[in-house]
Design brief:
It is a single chain. This protein has ten helices and no strands. It is mostly helical. The longest helix has 39 residues. The protein is flat, with a radius of gyration of 26 Å. It is a multi-pass membrane protein. This is Phosphonate ABC transporter, permease protein PhnE. One of its GO terms (cellular component) is plasma membrane. It holds the Pfam family BPD_transp_1.
Length: 273
């Protein structure tokens, strides 16, 4: 084979490589342009607005020190409300998400039409932010932890439902097929073949959602759903920055403790031993 023939064999590959490079370059240029336009629209390049920002933040930080814990006896109930809202909202969401995920999963659901309908419903639940759900439930059931629990539960149903049915669809089908061949019902197959395989991923998703919900429960306090968030906002409104910094430190300790607990539970459920 001559050198000219060898070169002619590689020419199509070289042309394809150049086309791919051009496509990748065009995609990178479009992504850069879109990012630049988004930053410009958001005001990121309005540099005069940054002039006093650092000085203001330093002054705010100085006014927040040292943290004032003098009212700590009055923070127990809001803290308990935040914990209860996060835990109960997660339990409600996980409890509703599991049967809905079983109906939505292609390998378990009774029909494709029902599965698609459930997926559409889950998408609608998670498309609406938890804060908006909170406003709706505050109007429906009044102030306090209850609307926060319902808001977190509904939004968690949408999020966990998607994660659950994806975990169920990735299990090994062989154990379920063996049970089916021995006349086991669909519910029995789900209980003894599908659920045990998917359980570690379901637990992992639920723990992650619990960590998220405890932080979100604080935010829901801003709209009257109780909890620690209302105490923080009230302290800021009264210019009690030292008290606000103490509340934020307590919240930080709470979230850190929950993250550590979540890591321990993950090791317990996801460990191969």
């Amino acid at each position: 084979m001559t050198d000219a023939e060898v070169c002619s064999d590689f020419l199509p590959l070289a042309r394809e490589w150049r086309r791919r490079q051009l496509r990748n370059g065009a995609a990178a240029a479009c992504a850069t342009l879109i990012t630049f336009a988004a930053c410009a629209y958001a005001g990121a390049f309005e540099f005069p607005r940054y002039a006093d920002a650092a000085q203001t933040m330093l002054r705010l930080a100085a006014d927040s020190l040292p943290p004032d814990f003098s009212r700590w006896r009055q923070w127990g109930r809001p803290l308990l409300e935040t914990l209860a809202t996060g835990v109960a909202g997660t339990a409600l969401g996980a409890g509703l998400a599991l049967p809905l995920a079983a109906m939505a999963a292609n390998n378990v659901g009774p029909s494709i039409f029902l599965g698609r309908s459930v997926r559409l419903g889950l998408n609608a639940l998670r498309a609406i932010p938890g804060l908006i759900w909170g406003v709706v439930f505050v109007a429906a059931v009044g102030f306090g932890p209850l609307p926060g629990m319902l808001a977190l539960g509904v939004h968690s149903t949408g999020m966990l439902g998607k994660l659950f049915f994806e975990a169920i669809e990735h299990v090994d089908p062989a154990p379920g097929a063996a049970l089916c061949a021995n006349g086991v019902s669909r519910l029995g197959v789900f209980r003894f073949a599908i659920l045990p395989q998917a359980l570690p991923r379901l637990v992992d998703a639920t723990i992650y959602r619990l960590e998220h919900n405890l932080r979100a429960a604080t935010t829901l306090g801003l709209i009257g759903a109780g909890g620690f968030g209302l105490e923080i906002v009230t302290a800021f409104h009264l210019f009690e920055y030292r008290e606000a910094s103490a509340l934020i430190l307590i919240l930080l300790a709470l979230v850190t403790g929950v993250n550590l607990l979540g890591a321990m539970m993950r090791r317990r459920f996801l460990s191969p031993d």
